[in-house]
Design a protein that fits this description.
400 residues; alpha+beta; Heat Shock Protein 90; five-stranded mixed β-sheet; 12 helices; 5 strands; ATP-binding; EC 2.7.13.3; protein dimerization activity
Length: 400
């Protein structure tokens, strides 16, 4: 990818930059910034090429002295040219491959250049370069055979070295690709975790605030429809409104606190979560706000916290919907079940009964409850029944 390809999101830019950092991929001739590690590796590669050149120096003793001097100069230049191997890897490898056809002292630098191409370029580019190295071994083995090995021995030895270096380069590249892939997967998993956490916080904010604000609306509606109420009743209603607003602010502050911590900290302090035992408190708040709520709740002992929390949220949202759409109607909350059978939550209220103004809603509460139930392995159904009631019924698994 070119730098001029347009603006990208921070995460996307990071993922696209990773292959260049790990694999060194880039355009031929493009300037490359070396890190400290790159300088160390380049120095070692230069030193390795120099050592290989010195080891092959005795093999030029059979050629005339002028040719020996020329080959020594070209061998030194070939080693020095390896400092360009990151910027022009393919060009340098092909040039050294051509020189190594008839020059012994260029072989070490040519091997390093070919290895560089295998690491820094994809297989479709590095394979032809390696094949060119093997092809040039034919004239080299013909004109400069090793006395002890002959033509075929020299060719097989050179081809084996080229193949081994090429395979080593492919392994290094594959490992770097694996590291890049694991990093991308880790980044993706982290982004998904953040997204799921934001969704959880959004659901909780909806559940909590919708419940509190609907109670507040009921108290305010009572004051609106009874302007001639006694001062003591008005004072009690105002106190209830103040208390509901105070609880709403506390809940909002707690949820936002979790949201702020989750943006930068690894250990997110979570708010105290409700359990099945808190359903009684929830119903009591509704009764205090003027709702007619009947509660049938079994013994809460042994109910897992996660199961109780899901049941609480379902009752909370169902009561909120009842206050919004059927204010003044009697509501029945029934919780039943046990280990192995699962926990069944039913909230029922008559349809079409509403005293006072309708509280607006976004319509996302029941969708969120359905998702909550399905994520826990259960199911939820809602809608009007033949007997004229509106029913919210959920079944949640309760493993033994």
């Amino acid at each position: 990818m070119k730098e001029s390809d347009g603006a990208r999101a921070p995460g996307q830019e990071y993922r696209w930059a990773l292959p260049s950092v790990l694999l060194g991929d880039g355009e031929e001739g493009r300037p490359v910034k070396r890190s400290t590690r790159d300088w160390i590796v380049d120095t070692l590669m230069f030193a390795l090429a120099c050592v290989l050149t010195l080891l092959t120096l005795p093999e030029i003793s059979q050629v005339p002295e002028p040719l020996q001097a020329t080959e020594q100069v070209l061998g030194a230049l070939a080693c020095a040219s390896l400092w360009l191997r990151r910027r022009w890897p393919v060009t340098l490898a092909l040039a050294l491959t051509v020189l190594s056809t008839g020059l012994v002292l260029v072989g070490g630098a040519s091997a390093v250049a070919m290895f560089t191409v295998a690491v820094h370029r994809p297989f479709r580019i590095s394979a032809p370069v390696a094949l060119a190295n093997i092809v040039t071994l034919f004239p080299f083995a013909y004109f400069r055979p090793t006395p002890d090995l002959g033509f075929w021995g020299t060719f097989v030895l050179g081809a084996s070295i080229v193949t081994a270096l090429f395979a080593w380069g492919l392994m290094v590249r594959a490992r770097r690709q694996l590291v890049w892939s694991l990093r991308v997967q880790a980044d993706t998993a982290a982004e998904q975790a953040k997204h799921l956490e934001r969704e959880r916080i959004a659901r909780e904010m909806h559940d909590v605030l919708a419940h509190r604000l609907s109670i507040l609306s009921l108290h305010a509606g009572a004051l609106e429809f009874r302007p001639d109420a006694k001062p003591a009743e008005i004072a009690r209603a105002a106190a209830a409104i103040r208390e509901s607003a105070h609880h709403a602010l506390q809940d909002l502050r707690g949820v936002i606190g979790v949201l702020r911590h989750s943006a930068g900290d690894d250990d997110v302090p979570d708010r105290p979560q409700p359990t099945l035992a808190d359903v009684s408190t929830l119903v009591a708040e509704g009764r205090q706000a003027g709702m007619d709520v009947a509660l049938i709740l079994p013994d809460q002992e042994g109910v897992p916290d996660a199961l109780g929390r899901n049941a609480y949220r379902i009752v909370q949202e169902a009561l909120t919907n009842a206050r919004k759409h059927a204010a003044g109607a009697p509501v029945t909350v029934r919780v039943s079940g046990g280990p192995g059978d699962g926990l069944t939550v039913e909230v029922r209220n008559p349809v079409g009964v509403r005293l006072g103004p309708r509280i607006p809603g976004a319509g996302a509460g029941l969708i969120g409850l359905t998702e909550r139930a399905e994520l826990s392995g259960g199911r939820l159904e809602h809608g009007p029944r033949p007997d004229g009631d509106f029913l919210v019924k959920a079944w949640l698994p309760w493993t033994t």
